[in-house]
Amino acid sequence: MKTRLAILILVVLLALLPAYAGKYAVYVVIHILLLSIFSLGFNLLFGYTGLLSFGQAGFYAMGAYGCAKILLAYPSLLVGIVGGVVTAGAVSLLLGFLCIRHTRIYFSMLTLSFGMMIFSLAWKWRDMTGGDDGLVGIPRAPLEIPGLFKINMAPMENYYYVVLAFAILAITLFYRIVHSPMGLAMQGIRDSETRTACIGISVRKYRLLSFTIAGLYAGLAGALLPPLESTVTPPLAHWSHSAEPVLATLLGGVHTFAGPIVGSVLFYLLKDIIVRFTEYWQLCLGIIVVVLVMGFRGGVASIFLRERGRR
Amino acid sequence: MYLWLLAAGLTIVFGVLGVLNFAHGSLFMLGAYFTFTYYGLLGVNFWLAIALSLLSVGVVGYFMERFFLRHIYHMDHAFQLLLTFGFILIFDDAAKMIWGGVAQIPPMPSFFEGTVSVVGRPFPVYNLFIIGTGLAVAIAIWLLFERTWWGRMVRASASDREMASAIGVNIPTLFTGVFVFGAMLAALGGALGTPVRVVAPGIGAAMIIQAFIITVIGGLGNLKGAFVGAIIVGTLSAYGILLFPVFELFLIFFIMAVVLMVKPQGLFGG
After folding, report:
1. Confidence of residue A302 (pLDDT cuts 50, 70, 90)
2. Nearest to B257 among A110, A125, A240 (CB)
3. Does any domain span residue A5?
4. What confidence score (pLDDT) does residue B122 get?
5. Are A301 and A259 contacting, i.e. CB atoms less than 8 angstroms apart?
6. Is there a contact between B13 and B182 (Cβ–Cβ < 8 Å)?
């Protein structure tokens, strides 16, 4: 009950954000929401199914480039976003078939190489992706359903509500997924592959599902980016970008539902604050990562959980 | 050839300790920076500078293993990857802090300048020297592992940690030693690479991907594989960029993925 009330208050606060906060805060929150979606998908794969992927940025970029290409050709926001998500989903389903044949370190390496393949395409396939210049001048097209309504997206506040709606949708859906039999099957695979297989659950099927859903989430986060920034560039697909959801998830807490969201908030705020004091933000981040791995593998969320458990 | 030195260290550490060291490329970078500092800035003798930088990186490796990695061997691979990834961030920014963000171009020792003629074509002396060193190191490592007492202990603990420990091998010390050895190999690669390339923060992240590709193609933990893998990747990127510049990068990752899918233990894995 208490949790529900807290969530309700949070949603109301977020919905009213443009009314009491400046443009910069809105911009930051949009990015936090994107990273949350990205990290949630990653955590389904890592925290719930036990597969550490280093190629998620590839699917993020598929979503971003897919959406950008569509928006450049046909300026309708909804078509662009859905198109981007579908592109990313299709690619991740395809690559999922190949990747889930392995686990542990080989899985990580395989996802890394596929992610980098997408990166090299974005970098070198100039006709399609604009090469290292990326794609520029992507319109923040109006949200429209022909014959029903058409909302102008030019003010960032309006776009903020689109992102917020998608984020809430994605988060709610994620909650349903991990609390469904499917989510439990994935956790079973993480804890013991053999036992899960023995009770008649197809390990392959659930790994593939998990991989594809993670790809869809990465694609959604990616597809929401180009209308905001109006550009997409190859570094979106680089493996160092894949590290962001990894770090956010680790920061917030692996294995927990809210971990990646809490982590995304912390990740962004920490970055924002540290960058103000020093240009060596990576150094601080590195130290945080080392400390987390050494001492607090459950992340921040686990500290709260532990506190609650004690009471 | 310095790709080989880099990959050799990575694969030895993986083969024996079972840790895939993400920060290995950063150790390469540190080796390059230390050499640059000792030789380029302080004017120490070139050979001494290399020895000193190996020693310095060895010390860094010692700290990494002794105080951090050692405590998480029993955990999932994922956490070791994450920990060493944290070290990349730290080393990269530390390098930026100490040596500045711009790329440095280290001086080349004068006795390495010039070319010799190989089969009628001019060939830089320095490249010849690196090839020679690479081969020498390959032979030295082989002798070390196959012919010495220390090598036998290392191989024993690689194949069965508990058994080796039971017959009196001091595993923790041995692991530290192996890690330091791997770190020094990376540093040697970086140190020898310095006179022919620029040194900048961030080369560590670029190098580690190269090293991953090589060790994966050759087989993780397999030295012979790393040697052949380095030659394949080195040749491929050199000729690839000449013949089909657009798909050179793609091709390399494609090969890596195919090897992983068809034969995950690598071309030379047992």
Report:
1. low
2. A110
3. no
4. 67
5. yes
6. yes
